[in-house]
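Incident log, structure service

09:12 report received: a user says their structure output differs between two submissions of the same chain.
09:20 pulled the input from the user's history:
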Amino acid sequence: MVENTVSIFVALFGALVGSFLNVVIVRLPEEGASVVFPASHCPACKKDIAWYDNIPLVSFLVLRGKCRQCGVRISWRYPLVEAAMAFLSLALYQHFGLTLLFPIYFVFCAALIAVIFIDLQHQIIPDVISLPGVVLGFTLSFINPFVTWQDAGLGVLFGGGSFYLVALTYYLLTKREGMGGGDIKLLAMIGAFLGWQSLPFVVFGSSVMGVVAGVWAMIEQRKGGKTVIPYGPFLAMAALLYLFFRQEILFLFVRYILHG
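09:34 re-ran on a clean worker, output below:
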């Protein structure tokens, strides 16, 4: 009974944070915009949203996905972000319990969710997320039982450094930017929170997902080699997979890659 109550509370907390992340996702890319003021409002008619129309997930269903004031459709991104954070919050609780690891990786997951949706829409990864994330991840490594400060430091160094070399090499060979600085900083942040051991899988896993998505985008957009897709979401998704399936991933890596 207590376990179920805590699980419900944890999921609700995640959904509430997801509601705030929706504000971050919309406003952070806007120059000079505040994520606190003004209050939540409809992007179409600009009218304030009442508290009872701003309940995570529930309000979207009650309103049937439309603004109460003007009737314009509400993006599916809003309930998707809220549901994603509710699910991740519950998964963290099931995986780590209410230990020190829960708040550390709750913040990490929230940052990755914001990155995914901002990069998908704007093809940017704001420095205000990744750079403080690098510092926070490394600082928390001194109290984080999941990763040592040495592993976190090497994660920052190898994460940012390796992608920088890849981006520089690609630019020198093609005279085109194939990877943005945001991806480099994001991988450094991932390395800070998950340690250098996560990087081979994160790079490999994100590359596989990126190739699949890239082929699909090339078919849909019909732009051939000029097709552009954001890479940040794939890095973030691979990092989430490593966070929850680290043991299984490392086992498979050792078994099938090192031993054939």
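09:41 both user submissions now match this output. Likely a transient worker issue. Closing.
09:42 reviewer note: The chain has two domains: 1-98, 99-260. The chain has a mean pLDDT of 86.
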